[in-house]
Design goal:
Layout: H1 3-17, E1 19-21, H2 22-29, H3 33-45, E2 50-52, E3 55-57, H4 62-84, E4 93-96, H5 100-108, E5 114-118, H6 121-127, E6 133-137, E7 141-143, E8 148-150, H7 152-158, E9 163-168, E10 172-174, E11 177-180, H8 183-195, E12 196-202, E13 214-217, E14 224-227, H9 233-241, E15 245-248
Parallel strand pairs: 4-5, 4-9, 5-6, 9-12, 12-14, 14-15
Antiparallel strand pairs: 1-3, 2-3, 7-8, 10-11, 11-13
Helix pairs in contact: 2-3, 4-5, 7-8
Length: 254
């Protein structure tokens, strides 16, 4: 069977089943994984399908596309969070920033005797049942959307502490460092970075090459980046020049 014939059969399958995995392509057409992947790449280039991890779906199923993307991002964030917990040791002092990935790390952490400073209501709720963790809440102006405290008073509160490690999320990271669309959030993140001896950034690959109006810090202020995929070669080289340790939580296994 030629590639053209396989592609037609794959499209017919998708019209009926709405989803097709690499394993199904390999089994049905008796081809290697590389061949199955090349078929999907060709179909995606022609606008016929949307590739997802391990297979493909039709682009017409916009709700499914969003659902699969959300699921992939969620799984990636979980793996980033789990990897981050390797850097948390018994009796550490930490600042935990408000971000979904940092919040996941708070859920997975197993170390005891921790001292944790945070501006996130949700992280306080997660850790409040842990009798072996002491929590310090950085108050200020409450943001009901993100369920956290922001602004100069929050930044001032954070400035009262000096911790071993900061786990911080990113709205955008580019060649000039971290940026945020919100001035009050940027103010708090700056205070967190200043209060920490080691800055560990938790971010999925979608935040790379994004820049917002308010500057948070330069790349030289970041010690470790934990992410799900390698950035571009140019950005990776930039990280190396700033002596940033880059940790990939998972390898692509499509």
């Amino acid at each position: 069977m030629t590639q053209k014939q396989r592609l037609e059969q794959i499209k017919k399958w998708l019209n009926i089943h709405h989803e097709m995995s690499l394993d199904e392509i390999m089994t049905l057409f008796q081809v290697s994984r590389d061949t199955a992947r090349r078929d999907l790449v060709k179909l995606e280039e022609d606008g016929e399908i949307v590739r997802i991890k391990g297979g493909a779906i039709l682009p017409s199923h916009s709700y499914q596309v969003a659902r699969y993307r959300e699921r992939e991002i969620s799984k990636s964030k979980e793996k980033i969070a789990q990897k981050a917990c390797n850097f948390i040791h018994d009796h550490d002092s930490l600042i935990l920033d408000t971000s979904t990935t940092v919040e996941l790390a708070a859920r997975y952490v197993e170390s005891s005797g921790l001292k944790v400073v945070t501006n996130s209501i949700d992280i306080v709720n997660i850790l409040s049942s842990r009798s072996n963790i002491t929590i310090y809440m950085a108050g200020g102006k409450f943001n009901p959307y993100h369920r956290n405290f922001v602004g100069p008073y929050t930044a001032e509160n954070i400035g009262k502490y000096k911790v071993n490690k900061l786990f911080i999320g990113a709205c955008g990271i580019g060649f000039e460092g971290l940026t945020s669309p919100d001035e009050e959030e940027a103010c708090v993140k700056k205070a967190m970075i200043k209060a920490a001896r080691q800055v560990i950034l938790l971010t999925d690959h979608t935040k790379f090459h994004k820049n917002f109006f308010h500057h948070v810090c330069g790349l030289s202020d970041i010690d470790i980046i934990i992410t799900d995929q390698l950035p571009t070669e140019e950005m990776n080289q930039c990280f190396k020049e700033h002596h940033i340790e880059l940790i990939i939580s998972e390898e692509e296994t499509e």
